[in-house]
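Case study.
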Amino acid sequence: MKGKVDLEGCDEKCDGHQLTSDARHSGKVIEVEGLTVVRSGQTVIQNASFVVHAGDYIGMVGPNGGGKTTILKAVLGVIPFVSGRVRLFGHDLRHFKDWGRIAYLSQNAIAFDEQFPLSVRELVSLGRLTRKRMGRPLGREDRKTVEGTLKYMGISDLAKKRIGQLSGGQKQRVVLAKALVRDPSILILDEPVSGVDSQTQERFYKLLSDLNLERKMTILMVSHDLAAVFCRMSHMICVNRLVRTSPITDHFDPNPILKETYGEHFQFAYHQHQCKGEFKDG
Amino acid sequence: MAEIGLNDLADLLGYQFFQFALIGGILVAITCSWIGLFLILKKQSMITDGIAHSVFGGIALGLFLGINVLWTSLATALASMTGITYLRKKGMAQSDSAIAVMMALGFSTGLILISLAGGFNVDVFSYLFGSILTISKGEIYSVATVAILAIAYLWTFHRELLSLTFDEEDSRLLGLPVTLLSVSFNILVAVAIVISIKVVGIILVTAFMVLPGLTAIQFNLSFKGTAVTSILIGLVGVISGIFLSALFDVAASGVIVFVMVGIFVTSAIYNKLG
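After joint prediction, the assembly is written out as follows.
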């Protein structure tokens, strides 16, 4: 089952409200306030505000070109914003240094050059690099963490394989292992399941649910798979220039907020009972 | 052709000019085949050709003004690298066009300077085609110093450079100083090109830097395995080239690159059949 959340303070749409979370993990991981991003003269994100709390499992949805990737990259400081404020773990983005606590998987994380001479173990080890320890080889503790992560992801037997020889599903596990090997507090994923079969997708979602529930990892994931978002996640953030947030509950009707995001013609048939079938955990 | 025995090879090792050539060649080969691998993976192999050709202008300037050509070469290589990076960044020229612009500027400047001076006393051809066997004591000191510094840099920061080469955006998010690493790597490339001109000359620099890495990548090894193989191929090329050149009195640069092409073709056929 998806991570349970406290819904106090949210009306049906939860517009402009803060996302709430489990009382055990009430720390704010990401705070975005009045964020506006302009690219090539076009306003891509307008006055966006939302909060991600520790332990949240959030699906970010919205039409193509709506600004999902842009907002993630602005939050991570990769692209600039014209106004607003971003705080990561309580620190202003401009002064934030503790990047090891954040892991990000980009849209094209698995679209790497197949000829690149890199073994799975080497790729995952790259995730242990930090600015502080530049120029120093990985220590025993690092190597132990790498092996542990390979084992956790079920890819120990692939450790010596070249990354170009992996299947789509294996690639996903390997890049996720690279993200997890730095033991982050939050995992941010931008459409990580595109281009793989549905069984592989399902295994990947299960893995993310486990990370959220067992390791209490905060997860923010861009996805076009609305069924997966509604069945598995605790909140959603809808992005189409404007940003709307909402918790996902058992009797939640997503259509009003989805219509606002995708347009009036949009209709999404969703019933909670559908989640027990292919989305059943365990 | 006279028969060559082991004694001839041993005799060669006794000559100081040959020892200098071997030490210089080995250090430059390690530097260039290691850097070359990164350049291939960054898909920037041809940048070496552009910079090497523009260095011709720097060499001509040094000879024209009577300054040590090593310094004018280094200055031109760095200026050329900066120019290419600037043109790309500002969107004034695409990657390969930016290289062509700097190459044209440097080479044409060199030709004008040579014409104005009415030809130089020093054989300009030695810069175009290399002359490792005539490397002087002074040159070997400067080449060795630069090469050892470059190797030390690569040894220390190869993991970070690998991360940057594989995924620049993710390296940024790991908190690595991406801009500093990129700039220092570009300086390293410019420096490596300048020192390799003494070994193989302007025309064959690209082949010298790229062939070892290109061959090594075919073997499906890890990055560490590929880098070591690339360096070994560079060493085999340079050492056999220098020996064969001294024994048969043929151009060292030609033999070095010919051996490298031979290894590349053989391994390509082997991998295809295997």
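Observations recorded in class. The CA atoms of residues 72 and 199 of chain B lie 18 Å apart. The radius of gyration of chain B is 19 Å. We will return to this complex in the next lecture.
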